[in-house]
Amino acid sequence: MTAIVDVTDLRKVYDGGFEALKGVTLQIREGEILALLGPNGAGKTTLISTICGITRATSGRVSVGGYDNVTEFRKARSLIGLVPQEIALEPFETVWNTVSLTRGLYGRGRDDAYLEKVLRQLSLWDKKDARTMELSGGMKRRVLIAKALSHAPRVLFLDEPTAGVDVDLRRDMWNIVADLKADGVTIILTTHYIEEAEAIADRVAVIRKGEILLVEEKDTLMRRMAQKELRIELQAPLSTLPESVARDNLRLVEDGSALVYTYDTTGERTGITRLLASLSEAGIALKDLSTTQSSLEDIFVGLVKEDAA
Amino acid sequence: MNLHAIRAIYVKEMMRFFRTLAQSFISPVLSTSLYFVVFGTAIGSRIQEVDGVSYGAFIVPGLIMLSVMTQAISNASFAIFFPKFTGTIYEVLTAPVNFLEIVVGYAGAAATKALFIGVVILFTAAFFVELQIQHPLAMIAFLVLTCTSFSLFGFIIGIWAKNFEQLQLIPLLIVTPLVFLGGSFYSISMLPPVWQTISMFNPVVYLVSGFRWSFYGLSDVPVGISLVAIAGFTTLCIAVVYWIFRTGWRIRD
């Protein structure tokens, strides 16, 4: 897949001297959903703002669809749609007018049929004549998405689109994102909800203190870094682990009524067979077994902590 | 040139104007009528003619200038300040538009509104006094240039302002006094010599003088100098707006 957004050695130093981006290099592939993860102040919004033209880069280069976002800003920007983190809408404008305004700003002529399609897709059609200040928070977020889609962009930046919305609406948003991807739109998503990235992203980029720590296929990342836990419920609680059973990656939990064994799924041997044999030899009776896999959130926290250490 | 963008900004701003049309229309008509009642009838009846023009008719160009300047500044400054305040400025900054297109959209709409109000006041004045316009083309030129330049000036104030207080600061503390002391209600020649000299440093004097000349052929300064002054002010405002967009001052990080 070719890169539709190409960021090379991007640096941003604010007037006060704070370096928000420290030479970020990132290629975003056409048609993918890239989740940009990072703690607060990591540089996610600065990166998006610089690509979109709100913030000026101190150095480095950004191209969108092969067009430089400074020297060929018209062509570059016309390919981009942005849904900002904050709900920013003029309160007295109607939904229809505010969406029409954005389409005009992007140099597109009037196309009522297209705007109707976008508003219907986002369940906003019956609110088209409502003023934005009359809408709920969730509806306002949909209006922001409608505005971003009003000129049929090829690249859509969603800066924490589901922050503060309820679970149902969040899942609706995921469905909308899935539909957009099916239409061929490239989506860059920043989020605090790791489950969101886990649910919809194709690739994950982790940013911390203005540096990209990794960019990897989500599934590969989870396979590569995932650890599993085997939980063993015991018939009778143990006060301590017998020496023949004790291992570094085995711990006694819940007042001795259960054991948790951590293992690497990519390893040649998991050690489960030997552990179960040891338990049998030590005369420890088992009640139940279950396994759990670490989530993207665990991986993310691990990565950020590891880098900070 | 992104004409769709210019149109989108312009239409949006004009729709805001039409949403409050009653207020936009009634307010200038009412205040102009009050000026004529107070200055034209109550006080004006005790004032002699100024160079052969009745006092009521003499103040019409100044009244129009007063409203046009304050309306142009107020509309343009609010038009760009409000998106900054609500955060919606992001969509202008991320759109494929250059500074010229943004300014033409915002300042063009503000100038149109000010022009509309200027015309409303002109027609209102015609009910109270006998008007004559000796140089109609010059009158239109002065009116359009004043609307344009003060809309640009208002645009700059709107970008500079960080809060609503600052938004009002320059119009209230600088522009209004300059307009009132700029010969809107009197001829500069009525002042003592020292104040006549001081008045020559007030740029509004040149605009009011030139505009009044287009009505009655009377002016405090030569009309050529008035035209140069308004053209120079417009050029200066354009240069400042260009610099703002080139550097991103107070709009781009």
UniProtKB/TrEMBL annotation, chain A:
The keyword ATP-binding applies. The keyword Cytoplasm does not apply. GO terms for molecular function: ATP binding; ATP hydrolysis activity. Residues 5-234 form the ABC transporter domain. InterPro entries: AAA+_ATPase (IPR003593), ABC_transporter-like_ATP-bd (IPR003439), ABC_transporter-like_CS (IPR017871), ABC_transporter_ATP-binding (IPR050763), P-loop_NTPase (IPR027417). Keywords: ATP-binding, Nucleotide-binding, Transport. PANTHER family: ABC TRANSPORTER ATP-BINDING PROTEIN. This is Multidrug ABC transporter ATP-binding protein.
TrEMBL record, chain B:
It is found in: Cell inner membrane; Membrane. PANTHER family: INNER MEMBRANE TRANSPORT PERMEASE YADH-RELATED, TRANSPORT PERMEASE PROTEIN. The keyword Transmembrane helix applies. The keyword Transferase does not apply. This is Transport permease protein. The chain crosses the membrane at residues 21-43, 55-82, 140-161, 167-188, 224-245. It is a multi-pass membrane protein. It comes from Pseudaestuariivita atlantica. Keywords: Cell membrane, Membrane, Transmembrane, Transmembrane helix, Transport. GO terms for cellular component: ATP-binding cassette (ABC) transporter complex. PROSITE patterns: ABC_TM2. NCBIfam families: PRK15066.1 (NF011648). It comes from the Bacteria.
